[in-house]
Write a structure and sequence with these properties.
By secondary structure, the protein is an alpha+beta fold. The protein has three domains: about 1-190, no CATH class; about 190-310, no CATH class; about 320-470, Reverse transcriptase/Diguanylate cyclase domain (Alpha-Beta Plaits), CATH 3.30.70.270. It has 15 helices and ten strands. Strand 5 and strand 6 (about 390-395) form a beta hairpin. The relative contact order is 0.07. One of its GO terms (molecular function) is diguanylate cyclase activity.
Length: about 475
């Protein structure tokens, strides 16, 4: 799940939150300065990719209003050189407006995230809501403010303000799409194993090499970057996918800031729009594929969980009657083909009703779990054990003669008799009674008849005094 959880407001949580905000502010300023150095156009604080928008969202989603001053300060100091804040009060005001617009965008994006996606960016179906409500709407508001601010300050002509709004909309939205999923995924789960990182690094280096060659040698390679990143989205862990995507998109923007390369046309505005459209669509497609893989993993895990619950007893974790009967049927078919005997046993916990009535059902459940654990530990991996219902269990011993199966049942009976289950200040002792039947090739029978023979032996064991194993 791609969600940022709020830090606790306890003293320890407050210190952790303060550290988080300080690191976020430094990262915001560093990414802004880095972006202006590599991605900037005129004026020099305007870039084709604004990664700080994603950092600002992560900070506000984590800390709420406490993050606003940090975002404002980091944006102010990052924008100041490009806006010329040292020259006049007007430039200082323009810088404050730019920082305020960045802070407003981060705060609004965090508010939209909490309102529309309270569980975070967790499924493919939530991606388009994330794009519309968290990316485009907040950045549109800030883009309009920034473009008007630049036009009023004389940095751009009013006629260029509308293209600037579009460019800022793409640049800021890209920053959110690239940074927020990465930060959220990193905080949500364990980092990939070193082996997974190595494979992801190779794919990332291939994508970066394609980007460089597309701008220097063969422009068509730019279109092979998408399937390369899609391969990683299908195979890699979330953190590795988002790191590779952010590095690749940043590299393309850095190359395009110097030379538009594959996106070069006569009209510079149109060329930038083509570039940003390519970057935006690439990012959305790769994110969508990663989220789709995540959806499939969740569905597969849920299906496996349901299958396990359908075939296993919820209390003891043993197989249940529903799954034991087909396994026993298959064992009969296998024994018929191979001409070998095998044994089946049913067993009961002695005086289990008295345990429940005396100590309560919680202690009764403890007894069931303890007996199941002893059965599971004492049997071979090829043996099949199930809780058939209540206090009754069944065991199948494949390819096992009657004598060996009887010895195994006696060991089980002795082991269970050594159990002591705590019940308040007392220790509850447990015994079992069992009945065993043998399927023989010369006397074949079905599942129901075999279990009925074992049950008849179990009833004899109870009549003869319990705590014993009886065979037919």
């Amino acid at each position: 799940m791609l969600k940022l959880a709020a830090v606790s407001r306890s003293p320890g949580g407050s210190r952790a939150q303060a550290l988080w905000l300080a690191l976020g502010g430094v990262a915001y300023y560093a990414c802004a300065s880095f972006g202006m150095a590599l991605f900037s156009i005129q004026p020099s604080n305007i870039t084709l990719l604004w990664l700080p928008s994603g950092i600002g969202l992560a900070m506000c989603a984590q800390a709420g209003r406490r993050a606003w001053p940090c975002v404002f300060a980091a944006s102010f100091f990052a924008n100041a050189p490009g806006m010329g804040a040292q020259e006049s009060l007007a430039h200082l005001l323009s810088t404050c407006v730019a920082a305020g617009a960045d802070t407003l965008a981060a705060a609004l994006a965090a508010a939209m995230l909490r309102r529309h996606l309270p569980h975070g960016l967790e499924r493919l179906s939530s991606l388009f809501t994330f794009i519309a409500a968290v990316c485009l709407l907040p950045t549109l508001v800030s883009a309009v403010i920034l473009a008007a601010n630049l036009a009023l300050g004389g940095y751009i002509a009013w006629s260029a303000s509308l293209p600037f709004v579009g460019m800022l909309l793409f640049a800021d939205s890209l920053g959110i799409l690239l940074v927020y999923p990465l930060v959220a995924a990193w905080r949500a789960g364990p980092a990939p194993r070193p082996g997974a990182w190595r494979a992801s690094l190779l794919v990332t280096l291939l994508a970066l090499a394609m980007a460089w060659l597309a701008f220097t040698v063969f422009a068509g390679l730019i279109f092979l970057i998408v399937p390369t990143l899609l391969y990683l989205a299908l195979r890699g862990r979330d953190q590795a996918v988002y790191v590779a995507l952010a590095l690749t998109i940043s590299a393309i923007v850095a190359l395009a800031a110097r030379d538009l390369g594959p996106f070069h046309v006569v009209d510079t505005v149109q060329a930038r729009f083509m570039l940003l459209s390519y970057l935006f669509s690439t990012t959305v497609v790769v994110l969508g594929m990663a989220l789709q893989r995540h959806d499939l993993e969740l569905e597969t895990r849920a299906r496996q969980d349901w299958q396990f619950l359908a075939n296993h007893d919820a209390l003891t974790g043993l197989s249940n009657r529903l799954s034991f009967m087909p396994m026993l049927e298959n064992e009969i078919e296998r024994a018929r083909r191979n001409g070998r005997a095998f044994a089946v046993a049913t067993l009961d916990i002695d005086h289990f009703k008295r345990i429940n009535d005396t100590y309560g059902h919680q202690v009764g459940d403890k007894v069931l779990v303890a007996v199941a654990g002893r059965l599971r530990a004492a049997l071979r991996t090829v043996d099949m054990v199930a809780r058939m219902g209540g206090e009754e269990f069944a065991i199948c011993f494949p390819d096992t003669p009657a004598g060996e199966a009887l010895l195994a049942m006696e060991r089980l009976r002795t082991g269970v008799g050594q159990l002591r289950v705590a019940a308040g200040g007392q220790q509850v002792t447990v015994t079992i009674s069992g009945g065993m039947a043998v399927w023989r090739p010369d006397q074949p029978c079905g599942v129901d008849q075999l279990l009925d023979r074992a049950d008849q032996c179990l009833y004899r064991a109870k009549r003869e005094g319990r705590d014993r194993i009886v065979t037919d």
